[in-house]
Amino acid sequence: MLAEKGTATRIMWLRWVPLLLFLIVIRAEYVLAQGATGPIKRILILYENQATLPAVVQVAAGLRESMLANMPLGVEIYSEYLDTDRFPDPANVVRIADYLTSKYVATRFDVVLAGGPGALLFALDHRSTIGSNAPIVFGAVGDTSLRSKVLPPDVKGVVSHFDVRKTIDLALTLQPDASKIVIMTGSSGFDRNWQATAKEALTDSYRGVPVDYKSELTLDGFETVASALPRNAILMVLNIFEDADGRKFYPRDVTQVISSVSKAPAYSVYSSHFGAGVMAGYVGTFEDIGKEMGIIASRILAGDLSGPQTYLLEGGPMIDWNLIKHWGIDPIRIPKDAQVLNYQMPAWEKYRIEILTMLAVILLQAATIVALFLERRRKLRLQTELNLERLELAYLSRTSQLGELSGALAHELNQPLTSILSNAESGTRLLENKPIDIDELRDILNDIVLDNKRAATVITQLRRLMIRGETSLEPMDLNYAATTTLALARSELLARQTNVEVMFDMPDVPIRGNLPQLQQVLLNLILNATDAMANVTPAQREIAIQTKKRENGTCELTVTDRGVGIETGHHAEVFKPFVSTKKSSLGLGLAICRSIVQAHGGTLQFDENFEKGARVILVLPSL
């Protein structure tokens, strides 16, 4: 009893959904009838079943859509629901006919629409008293229902073929390992007709699979059978309007109850049963039936009766994707022409073009990044090679400069060595005296130490200039770089009778640099200045070296001479490789000097506004 009560409660609640849809359809029919202008057209729609049967609701929805699209405003629509499937007593049919005859005695219809075979039969039997002998348009009528009927020429409609065999073929495609086929039908006359149709189509075995027909059971009995089915069985719930206890149902509701407990997938020939646990079926939708009925009725209202008497509505495979996944059916078995419900396309299928475009963009970007990375590596390699070549060239330039200074450097070393020799000889003679003059001997030894340090300083500076390879920038004093460079060039300057004036605005000018390279730059600038004054009288040969810190924080060193200067417009040219004002020079000295200064983050240029001689300005970042 409790199980029966629970089932009845579930069915009662399931009826509310089609009822709401029915109310929406009624409202749409009322709207269609508003705004009439000209002669009024009237349509009577007879439905075989009750108003809230899902199939009826779907037919009505298709009719509404079709009539709104094809009929003018002002058509009056009347709907009647015979419910003869639940109340088939002939006396009841007579009462319904009498009631409708009385109701529409003063109403003339232009078209009568009949939904279902019972409604078609009712419309044919009473078309003179109820339908005003108007043309009839029918739908939701199976082809088997019309086999023995000869219809009048003005009766046209949509013939449906609810194909049991094609539905089982579809089931065997989805379940090739099926062990049995179970067909369920109810106890009403309509249900028994369906069982006979199924037996005619399938017999006791179909394609080698045994077929078992279940009917004349209570709802609980159907549930028991379904719950005991093996997983590889095929369950088809054809139609159950009434069970063995005489209880009447919506077939869709019964299908949902049975499929919810079934251990095997459920199939149906009705599109209205989808969403109620049916996994698949070869169906034509009731909504399409309604649409086609509306199109035919629209033509008749327009005076066109030339169309064929019947239109066969072709069905097709329909699949519920959610249940395909639930039952673990291989999706590859789904026919390509199937209508798949509840299918959410994967992102790859839904946005294939966008994804391919995005992947192409990503690949292009990746290729661009790789190309840029490889190009950067190539540039870094070339830059490294260039730096090594620049360092080698700078080294060769320093070697060349030292070659120019070799005589002066030899003289610079010869002086302390000569002094050391002289002091050593004096000390030797002093040791022969008795007594030995200790104080004088100490002075001689101190002079030897000083001369040795002087020679060592020259050698140290020479060694620094001869360093080759990679160098680093370290904190240093620009003034120190200037003084040590002058010390190296002192003998050469004396030989060339050139005076040097040094002006340091600050005791220390801190920078970050490489001492040997900066000494090379300064030495080159000093020697260039002496060369520029070769034709100047010795009294006027003067070089001024000045260091200071600029207002913007950078450090500046200038080398000024009183030579012939540089021609106007050629101040930038002299820094280019192989450009020189001297016939015996390759023209690489200033180019190398500028590259060294630029590597230090500084600039090297001539003062274009200086007129009496030449002034070169070296600017370096401050520490």
From TrEMBL:
Regions crossing the membrane: 355-374
SUPFAM superfamilies assigned to the protein according to its UniProt record, in alphabetical order: ATPase domain of HSP90 chaperone/DNA topoisomerase II/histidine kinase, Homodimeric domain of signal transducing histidine kinase
Reaction(s) this enzyme catalyzes, per UniProt: ATP + protein L-histidine = ADP + protein N-phospho-L-histidine
Any one Gene Ontology molecular-function term assigned to this protein's record: phosphorelay sensor kinase activity
Enzyme Commission (EC) number: 2.7.13.3
Gene3D superfamilies, per database record: 1.10.287.130, 3.40.50.2300, Histidine kinase-like ATPase, C-terminal domain
Key words of the record: Kinase, Membrane, Phosphoprotein, Transferase, Transmembrane, Transmembrane helix
Domain Histidine kinase: 408-623
SMART domains per the UniProt record, alphabetical: HATPase_c, HisKA
Pfam name, any one: HATPase_c
InterPro entries given in the database record: HATPase_C_sf, HATPase_dom, His_kinase_dom, HisK_dim/P_dom, HisK_dim/P_sf, Sig_transdc_His_kin-like_C
Keyword Transmembrane applies: yes
PANTHER family listed in its UniProt record: SENSOR HISTIDINE KINASE, TWO-COMPONENT SENSOR PPRA
Protein name, as recorded: histidine kinase
